[in-house]
Amino acid sequence: MFCSHCGKEIEEGVRFCKYCGQPVILAQKNGPEEGRQQREEIHRENYIAPAGLKEKKKKTNDNSLTILLGVIAAVLFVTLGFLVYRIFLADPVTGGKKEPSAKETAVSAESGASQKTGSGSGISGTGQADPAAASGEETGFPAVEKKANAAAYPGTMDVVSADVTDYPNVKLYCSLTDSAGEGIVLQSPTAGIRESISGGGEIEREIISIERLEGNQGIGFDILVDKSSSMSDELPQMQSILTDFITSLDYASGDAAEIISFDTYVMYMCMYTDNMSNLLNGISNMSTYGRTALYDALVEGISNAGSRTGANCVIAFTDGEDNESRYTYEEVVNLALAHDVPVYIIGLGTVDSGRLGSLSEQTGGCYWDISAITDMREILATIYEQEKDLYCVEYVSDGSADPYASRSVSCAIADDISGGVIYNYGYTAVQRKEEVSHASRYELVIGDYSWSEANSDALSKGGHLVTITSREEMDQIAAMAGNAGLKYIWMGGYTSVRNGTAYGHWTTGEPFDFAPWYPGEPSRNDLDGEPEFYLIFWNVEGVWSFNDERDDVAADLATYRGKMGYVIEYEN
Fold first, then answer.
1. pLDDT digits over 90-124, tens only?
2. What does the alpha-carbon distance between residue 343 and residue 331 come to, in Å, rounded to a whole number?
3. Which of 6, 147, 226, 445 is 20 to 30 A from 110 (CA-CA)?
4. Is the link from the previous residue into 522 a cis peptide, with omega within 30 of 0?
5. Peptide bond into 23 cis (omega under 30)
6. What is the pLDDT of residues 180-233, one digit of tens each?
């Protein structure tokens, strides 16, 4: 049963709406005549003269009778006015003006009423009443939808990703493009959202804000770089192009990047950071080697980008077919689709552009087939512009619902100048890593783990394998390991070879200036010929020093078992 005045649901049989105070009319339920009779009955029961007012006998004096009737009419007028106030406007307990009940407030909030800029809810960004709402014009989603439908230059919208880290606040990252595929820049954007959770009813939601990322929010770039042996001629030029790109990022607004190289192995040249110096150092530390583990690198980059908050993308460059990865093409595609991360791929030389193009297209990215490494410069600029053209629409969802439940939204974005767009989007948000503060900078983990296992664990906890960059730090880590009875500690670094000489570099991109190598190390190959790429801190005859080792050394060499561990270093 619903009130015929305010439309809110009320209990059966009540005579007055507890929300608006008006008499309940059942015309729609019982028919118009019965409804009319009910209204008359309600009025008869409630509009009565106060006690003490008796009907006067008629006098023969017409003037006296006229005066008496006038007095009676005035008293009745005042009394009836008081009753109307008490019945319809006053709180029955306090006698004051009624305040909305908790349920009424909740229903109002559920309907999507907003007091934030750009919500189109009838309230302006200053908190003042919207003249359009006061005049009865459409507000909220209907108003934005109407404006978008009437736009002279309608565009196309695509929701790239959804971030529920601050749930019930939800951020949708949307691309807006015109008929030519160019990004739309709105002058005074407004937005409206209707949301359905797990197949439920569609409810309008409160819009917190809408803003273009350019100058307001940063982009996270996972840059995957092919440095296989076939890249020996192009590597210096590619390093120069990447250096210019990293230098051009807008770190003030939050841009950051991660440099991952791949050959036979996948290596972190510089983990995700906004430290431009470390990023540039990671680029300069690259040297060519081995084969092409493209799919393994894509898995690493997509996993990392998909787990971070905000807007992120993957940019991969390769000059040939994958010929070394453990992961398959199908596994890469499934991972990319699950993480809602756009993947941009640049191919040079003999590359299966059909497969990689399909991968990029499915994730909202793009594929370029280039004939010269110099073309990479313009493509990187295009990707950057496209990412910065994204809009972030933030709205308030249902706080009682599961943040990772399946959702569908109708999103409308428009302004008075550039046109507008409407888009229907279904998604299930991916869980992302939240930044956690740690009480201690270092955490010791004991066990016969491989370097890859240790590195993955450190990343999952928001840290990285320790980088020992000073004598003081070396003594501290040695004491931690020694007190735990350990002799072998994995560190966050690799070795590479340039001009026939092995050298070390940290996964964080920090300068490798402090290097207490064990005599004869780094060797890059063990005595049995097994390649060694991963840095270990070891104690030989009571002296701690650096060495390079194979990935799962404990599996091959019994002397390491029971004496191994790793140290996670936290920057926050």
1. 443 333 433 433 322 222 223 332 323 333 322 22
2. 14
3. 147
4. yes
5. no
6. 888 888 888 999 999 999 999 999 999 999 999 999 999 999 999 999 999 999
> Alpha-carbon distance 498 to 511, whole Å?
16
Residue carrying structure tokens 């295009």: 382
Residue 240, token pair as written in the block: 């120069």
CA distances for 454 relative to 7, 140, 159, 460, 512, angstroms: 61, 50, 35, 10, 21
pLDDT at 267 over 80: yes
Nearest CA among 190, 197, 147, 118 for reference residue 409? 197
**168 preceded by a cis bond (ω within 30 of 0):** yes
Cα torsion through 200, 203, 207, 213, rounded to 10: 40
Beta 203-212 vs 391-396: how paired, if at all? antiparallel
Dist CA 172 CA 421 (whole Å): 15
Rg (CA), the chain: 35
Q: Kindly report the CA angle at 460 between 361 and 164, in degrees rounded to 5? A: 60
Q: How far apart are CA 90 and CA 259, in angstroms?
A: 67
The residue-averaged pLDDT of 533-562 equals 97
Task: With a cut of 80, say whether residue 6 has pLDDT above it.
Answer: no
The angle that helices 329-339 and 294-307 make with each other, rounded to 10 degrees, is 10
One-letter amino acid of 81: G
pLDDT of 87 above 90? no
Residue 292: phi, psi to the nearest 5? -125, 100
Place of tokens 């997509």: 302
User: What residues form DSSP beta bridges with 566?
Assistant: 445, 490
Residue percentage of the chain with pLDDT more than 90: 62
**What's the one-letter identity of residue 500?**
G
- Joined tokens for residue 79: 């009394």
The model's confidence at residue 37, banded by pLDDT at 50, 70 and 90, is very low
